[in-house]
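Translate sequence into structure tokens.
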Amino acid sequence: MKIVVIGGSGLIGSKVVSILRQLGHEVVAASPSTGVNTLTGEGLAKALAGAQVVVDVANSPSFEDKPALEFFETSGRNLLAAEKAAGVKHHVALSVVGTDRLLGSGPGSLSGYFRAKMAQENLIKASGIPFTIVRATQFFEFVKNIAQSASDGSTVRLSPVLMQPMVSDDVAGAVADVALAEPVNAMVEIAGPDAIRQDDLVRQFLTATGDPRKVVSDTKLGYYGIEVNDQSLVPGDSPRLGSMHFAEWLRLTTDEKAATASNLSGKATKAVALLLCGIVLAAMSLGNTAAAATTEPKEAKVTQLFSKDLSDLPGKEGLMLMVEYPPGSSDPIHRHNAHGFIYVLEGSIVMQVRDGKEVTLTPGQTFYEGPGDVHVVGRNASQTKPAKFVVFFVKDKGAPVLVPAQ
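Result follows.
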């Protein structure tokens, strides 16, 4: 089948795209970076032509009441109208377990966001297109964000409300399965295999990651400012359950971080350099023995300047690198599956993404490539002088910086 995944470059979307492609389906990973914008309608008709299924896992960039409502209503209307025109047979949307129970108000609460999700669900139900709405519980990957939002210095104050979180891989697997099944014109709930209280969830995470902050339980606190009870955040009868337990995910996550930390040496820096900027410098034809005998380094130097979880963009992180190209250095063909912003500091570099123009950049000039772009040219424009630039990525947390491409 041809399946279009709206939000196909995000945490869940990219996983859904990968699963469906591995099963042999034609999958379009649709997002503004690939020329498909549900807010403006740009590229929708072309992307949906011949599609049997549309999977919508896109999320509002803002959790504030008005922007969230505008996003889900505008995006929903444009997408559903385009689907009807294209004859789409099944609309699948990812929502949140308990959405209809999280509409209460409170200072700084996310109740407006959940009202926006309800508006999205109602548009789908009224569209006349066969649908399945998948409501998922909180993701394991967002536990750190919960801790950050509730932190006050060395204390994390949280409600002991009952939750049943799940790993994003299980979410993506469930969404992919639903996309390949017949529409049920109803809700399907998915959750993790274990129920756990929010304060204990975060407490276990902080302990496992060596975070010294102390979790304090407060029954008066709600969930992101919303009054809740032990039925608010857990699924009803007969949900589909994921396979990964939180304790197993914690172990795998901390083992991976420990392995990464143990390699934060010259080897790790070298590996990043090899991936991001290529392995070998182009041969230098300087025309004399003295020049040929120079000890110019043969690998680009990559220095990580800064990294930060982007709490306002769940599942995303920012990463800033400095790249120093020796003379003649060039990159292999690659993609980043991220938003990349380049600013040239020194020398001149040549950049090109597939279907784009080759450009030569000098100090003060910039270059952008999106999650769907394939970087076909990246090199130092000079055979005799070095070049230097900084690049800032907005990427999925934990995802590799670079993916080889052809």
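Note: The two ends are 25 Å apart (CA to CA).
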